[in-house]
Amino acid sequence: MKKREKKKNKGGVLFLLLLAGFLIFSGNILYNRLFPLEYEEIIEEYASEYGVDPYLVYGLIHTESRFQTTAISPAGAMGLMQITPETGDFIAKRLQMKDYEESMLYVPEINIRMGIYYLSYLEESFPVKETRLAAYNAGPNRVKGWLDDSSIGSGDVLHSIPFEETRNYVERVIFRETIYRILYFYKKLL
Fold it and tell me: CATH number of 38-189: 3.10.20.90, 3.20.20.70, 1.10.530.10, 3.40.190.290?
């Protein structure tokens, strides 16, 4: 009977080792391919400087560009955090960037710095995360109008977002922010 128990224990240990190997392998696929942690130093630096949650930034970049530096939207938004040329000009003036040119929106460090700064700037007018993300996507003036419409907003809170694209965008960013938070919380433990 003891031989049978030893064989059973060896089989159980082998199963656990195979399961652990599979989880590590599949975890690496999640980390490296599906939800990459690119530009970590830059994101952490500017998120800290401007008081923005880095996981929100990862979720936003993943939603906006999937970490493609040359991404451009049909509306003309550019780079990792999909900043429009008009918003880029506005941010560059606020950050007192002397030699700013539109093409700089494709430079990861500049795009990330500007995007994180803009999230921080939007937080002054939109302290609720979902409303701030709606403003990032649809524009702050449009969202202010929504907040003033008592049928869809009150104060700082949007009870419903009238644009399906913006509503879906906010949900996707928050979902991806949560995935990043879970994946990389556990990765730091390993």
Answer: 1.10.530.10
